[in-house]
Design a protein that fits this description.
Elements: H1 6-12, H2 20-33, H3 49-54, H4 61-66, H5 69-74, H6 81-88
Amino acid sequence: MQHLSHDQITAMAQPIPMSRDDKLERWASLIERSSERIFIFHRLEYRSHDELARLANPRSAFAIAAADPVLKVAGLNSECVGEGMRFFEL
């Protein structure tokens, strides 16, 4: 029997198919359960694609989503705004 580390198992994980609605409902439930103050981004519509790809805050709703193991396995790769927008189809 071969023993694998957590990192090896995570690297081998296949994305879980989730609909857009499933992703958004999971994200909303994570935000509702959070006891932390959540950072809100403003005027994202005026940011370039490159800026959105780099923009992040560890207290944002995107960071809450990125910390969730279910959403990670479903394909969410980082807490950056651009990645969140891609993943949640915003």
